[in-house]
UniProtKB/TrEMBL annotation:
<protein>
    <submittedName>
        <fullName>FMN reductase</fullName>
    </submittedName>
</protein>
<dbReference type="InterPro" id="IPR029039">
    <property type="entry name" value="Flavoprotein-like_sf"/>
</dbReference>
<dbReference type="GO" id="GO:0010181">
    <property type="term" value="F:FMN binding"/>
</dbReference>
<dbReference type="GO" id="GO:0016491">
    <property type="term" value="F:oxidoreductase activity"/>
</dbReference>
<dbReference type="GO" id="GO:0005829">
    <property type="term" value="C:cytosol"/>
</dbReference>
<dbReference type="Pfam" id="PF03358">
    <property type="entry name" value="FMN_red"/>
</dbReference>
<feature type="domain" description="NADPH-dependent FMN reductase-like">
    <location>
        <begin position="2"/>
        <end position="139"/>
    </location>
</feature>
<dbReference type="InterPro" id="IPR005025">
    <property type="entry name" value="FMN_Rdtase-like_dom"/>
</dbReference>
<dbReference type="InterPro" id="IPR050712">
    <property type="entry name" value="NAD(P)H-dep_reductase"/>
</dbReference>
């Protein structure tokens, strides 16, 4: 299970959210990995370039190995961050794989923003991108308004419902991955 998210600031609210969701996946019994914030500072994705930066290679290989993903983006001005969008653009490098793009993988999604409008529109954009990449967006997604909810350093939040929602998203992704592996 791969978690992708955060902002340029290490330990950001969106990074903390993806950590909570990954904890929910780990409770189901899957191995988790996180690529967050500063690790997502990649050159702009360019299909014309064959060589990739070492961070981009690590990201693409982690996605390739993953049976499920959790993606959390901050919402900036009503949209997902350029950092997260650029990382998702690198999924294009999986186009010729036996399992192209995010095919056959559940993807748990959450958006973290200071206000409901940006949180909701960012989540919807993440769903649209997931569908375009052939991923299965989990039934539950998270829109988190940090004007009302604050994450702490102990993988918790001021609102217990937010923690339960993120853990459930993680467990949905893990359960989907395990059920696909069983057939």
């Amino acid at each position: 299970m791969l978690g992708i998210g955060g902002s340029l600031r290490e330990g950001s609210q969106s990074e903390r959210a993806v950590r909570i969701a990954l904890a929910g996946a780990a409770e189901v019994g899957v191995t988790t990995e996180l690529i967050a914030g500063p690790e997502l500072v990649l050159p702009f994705y360019d299909t014309a370039l064959e060589e990739r930066h070492e961070k981009a290679v690590r990201l693409v290989e982690a996605i390739r190995r993953a049976d499920g993903l959790i993606v959390v983006s901050p919402g900036y001005h009503g949209a997902l961050s350029g950092l997260v969008k650029n990382a998702l653009d690198y999924v294009e490098d999986l186009r010729d794989d036996a399992r192209p793009y995010l095919d056959g993988r559940a993807v748990g999604l959450a958006a973290v923003a200071f206000g409901w409008q940006a949180a909701v529109t960012t989540l919807e954009q993440l769903r649209t991108i997931t569908h375009a990449l052939r991923g299965w967006a989990t039934p539950l997604g998270g829109s988190i308004n940090t004007a009302e909810t604050k994450f702490d350093e102990a993988d918790g939040a001021s609102d217990e419902k937010t923690v339960r929602t993120l853990r459930l998203i993680g467990s949905q992704v893990a359960e989907f991955a395990l059920s696909r592996a069983g057939h």
